[in-house]
Amino acid sequence: MSASAKLPVYMSATDFLDWEPGDGLHYELVDGEPRAMAPASTIHAYLQNELGSLIRNHLREHGSTCQALANPGVTPHLLSAHNIRIPDLGVTCSPITPGQATLPDPVLLVEILSPSNQAETWSNVWAYTSIPSGQEILVLHSTRVQAELLRRNAQSAWPAEPEQITGGNLTLASIGFQVAMNELYARTGLHTA
User: What are the residues facing 149 on neighbouring strands?
Assistant: First the structure.
């Protein structure tokens, strides 16, 4: 795509999955509009890789059929024909098959929050709450040691506010996973309070 070429004004999820922008950027589809995603900061990328590796290892060690994927496409139930969001990590316990364009039935979705993408991240989190299979949504901060966790309750409702985690352990009940916050952030240069 040339510098003067314009992005499509409005796309369906099907059109988006077939779309080849050719500009080297990564996009997600938000309410029918392709939205370019900025490259991740080094701390953002570190946290994505570290947590993804810890979760993958945990799932394998426990013989789980669940899989952790980086940057999977997910389809929110809300306006699904015009939305493909891209979380930093996703976990599904449904089979993954060749040729699938989006992650089936995610149980856990993770976003890493940077100062430059706060509005977009929380917009995605809101969209993720409409996914019927979703059990937890984790938002990790990349400028301080902090996690914000949304977990469905016994009645399948989402809480009004996320649980704030700044120390101790981060527990992801959806996959039986736990990690100390200071261990997760150990090599970031950020310190627990």
Answer: 138, 163
**Beta bridge partner(s), residue 165:** 147
> Facing residues of 127 across strands?
none
- Element holding 147 (H helix, E strand): strand 147-151
Edge-to-edge strand list for the sheet holding 163-165:
67-70, 89-92, 106-113, 136-141, 147-151, 163-165
Total-model pTM:
0.86
Cα-Cα end-to-end distance for the chain: 47
Query: If 0-12 CB within 10 Å is exposed, 13-18 middle and 19+ buried, where does residue 141 land?
Result: buried
What are the tens digits of pLDDT across the range 39-60? 678 999 999 999 999 999 999 9
Domain regions of the chain by residue span:
41-71+85-184
Backbone angles phi, psi at 73, to 5 degrees: -80, 135
Q: Note the CATH architecture for domain 41-71+85-184.
A: Alpha-Beta Complex (3.90)
